[in-house]
Design a protein that fits this description.
Layout (H helix, E strand, L loop, with lengths): L1 E9 L5 E5 L15 E5 L5 E8 L1 E8 L7 E2 L4 E3 L9 E2 L9 E6 L35 H8 L6 E3 L5 H4 L4 E2 L1 E2 L3 E2 L1 E9 L7 E14 L1 E5 L10 E2 L3 E3 L13 E8 L6 E9 L8 E10 L4
Parallel strand pairs: 1-8, 10-14
Antiparallel strand pairs: 1-4, 2-3, 2-5, 5-6, 5-7, 9-21, 11-21, 12-13, 14-20, 15-18, 15-19, 15-21, 16-17, 16-20
Length: 292
């Protein structure tokens, strides 16, 4: 039986809103056996979802330009021929303090970062003049090893441009074998509050057999990182010439005692090796200071 849901309201235009069953991790992304119904809010934040199959659903939403997901706190039961009005939904993106710096644009894709020209031996002429699908060229994962043959990517906040200086995939480097890599983000602090915690927001657009580790001011600091994702991802976006897979958001506490007044560095290590397709794609990174 079919029915429709009509005239719900969300507080942001251009939001993606959908009815779905939760997957194995509680989100809509990993649900593969049930039905999903999605739409986009209009300029005033209104949306309609028509012709929904009967059943009980969760309502999810996400908004380009903001990190995280919205999930309605009450399940919605759809019955034949009915109209359900939800009312106003307000999504408050996660935040604890002011933005010190950010890299990228939060849209669940790595498309805004630097995508190199392909090896001349593998050029696909369909995408030579493309500006939006350059990532579809063959073998771009190996270009990282050519562009950074001995040292990894270093990004300096306030100097570097993520559209030119942040590689679109944090994958392995090809030596005698494929090995993990460590990227460095350099930034300056006018003051470091030693008794507070800073928040590092790591939004990933994709991951494949990867482990992302975070260290502060020493790439080899202790044997244990400040944070590790553990082994994550099997999307194969790097190997399949994609630009996004499953979205993941990690909210990492950085003790102020690890930071100093002046020059600081955050090291992002993708520690797994083995082949050229292992790695992560970043969607967006932000450092928030403590609340004052």
């Amino acid at each position: 039986m079919l029915k429709y849901v009509s005239r719900m309201v969300i507080s942001a235009k251009g939001a993606y809103v959908g009815l779905a069953y939760p997957g194995s991790d509680g989100t809509w992304q990993t649900e593969s056996k049930g039905y999903q119904f999605w739409t986009v809010t209009d300029a005033n934040g209104y949306f309609w979802i028509n012709n929904v199959r009967m059943g009980k659903y969760n309502l999810y939403a996400f908004v380009p330009g903001f990190i995280g997901d919205y999930r309605h706190n009450v399940a919605i039961t759809i019955t034949a021929g009915s109209v359900t009005k939800i009312g106003k939904l307000v999504y408050k993106p996660p935040r604890v303090g002011p933005t010190y710096w950010e890299i990228g644009y939060p849209d669940r894709s790595a498309a805004e970062f630097y995508i190199p020209n392909p090896n001349l031996k593998y050029v696909n002429r369909l995408f030579v003049n493309q500006t939006t699908e350059r990532f579809r060229q063959y073998g771009l994962w190996d270009r990282y090893s050519e562009i950074y043959p001995t040292k990894d990517l270093v990004f300096t906040v306030g100097v570097s441009d993520y559209r030119k200086d942040w590689y679109f995939s944090h994958n392995t480097r090809r030596k005698n074998k494929y090995v993990g890599t460590t990227w460095e983000i350099k930034f300056n602090l006018n003051n470091a509050n030693k008794n507070s915690k800073y928040k590092l927001r790591l939004a990933l657009a994709s991951a494949t057999a990867a482990e992302l580790q975070v260290r502060v001011n020493d790439p080899y600091w202790a044997k244990s990182p400040v944070f590790s994702t553990g082994l994550i991802g099997d999307e194969n976006a790097i190997a399949r010439h994609g630009i996004q897979g499953l979205y993941r958001l990690y909210n990492v506490d950085l003790p102020g005692s690890l930071l100093v007044k002046g020059n600081n560095s955050i090291f992002l290590t993708q520690s797994r090796g083995g082949n050229g397709f292992i790695g992560v794609m970043y969607d967006y990174i932000r450092l928030e200071g403590p609340l004052t």
